[in-house]
Design brief:
The complex is a heterodimer of chains A (about 120) and B (about 110). Chain A is an all-beta fold. Helix content of chain A is about 0%, strand content about 50%. Chain A has no helices and twelve strands. In chain A, strands 2, 5, 6, 10, 11 and 12 form a six-stranded mixed beta sheet that branches. Chain A has a four-stranded antiparallel beta sheet with strand order 3-9-8-7, with no helix packed on it. Chain A has a two-stranded antiparallel sheet with strand order 1-4. In chain A, strand 7 and strand 8 form a beta hairpin. Chain A is globular, with a radius of gyration of 14 Å. Chain B has about 110 residues and is an all-beta fold. In chain B, about 0% of the residues lie in helices and about 50% in strands. Chain B is built from no helices and eleven strands. Chain B has strands spanning about 5, 10-15, 20-25, 30-35, 45-50, 55, 65-70, 75-80, 85-95, 105, 110-114. In chain B, a hairpin with a 5-residue loop joins strand 4 and strand 5. The N and C termini of chain B lie far apart (about 35 Å). The chains are: A mainly beta (about 120), B mainly beta (about 110).
Chain lengths: ~120, ~110
Amino acid sequence: AQSVTQLDSQVPVFEEAPVELRCNYSSSVSVYLFWYVQYPNQGLQLLLKYLSGSTLVKGINGFEAEFNKSQTSFHLRKPSVHISDTAEYFCAVSEVSLDTGRRALTFGSGTRLQVQP
Amino acid sequence: NAGVTQTPKFQVLKTGQSMTLQCAQDMNHNSMYWYRQDPGMGLRLIYYSASEGTTDKGEVPNGYNVSRLNKREFSLRLESAAPSQTSVYFCASSDRWTGTYEQYFGPGTRLTVT
């Protein structure tokens, strides 16, 4: 079974500083990778996704992520954060399930980004 | 366009009581999902419906049942609630069940079982 590890449960950062949220996954076969953001008391929304092609993926709100197959990582970055980026960020991996033959989406445990003034 | 809506937003149940969480989407999506979110554990899939007329178990189906009422609606039922089912429940939908399509999430239902 695949697993997704988000190495940091909380990341405090000052406004306008750069940030990197780390994500590693265990699968070695064909995967699709996603980052979702959850603002307080809301559902999740898609930030960006990697399906194929260029390993550097750009998303909404100035975020980007880089797919590194050899390191099985998909870290999320932003060069300059705003207070409004304070939220929880989830990495997710889609892989074909050996049990069902269908793709299943597995979420990491989340990283809480706290942007301080 | 409301997207994915869920009712109720909050619910408190006593152990052993039953309830149904309702979910509807207006995006004409084929696939719908129920997740639960617990602190430090991310989202875990309870049940999903790849297309109208089908439902399948996810990672944590015990204690739950689902009904795909039509293409728009997918309900989650707790027959006999237990404190371990205290959680935030999210419904989501996507155009297809191929793993490439974005999932759209509802605002969640916060359930407490005492």
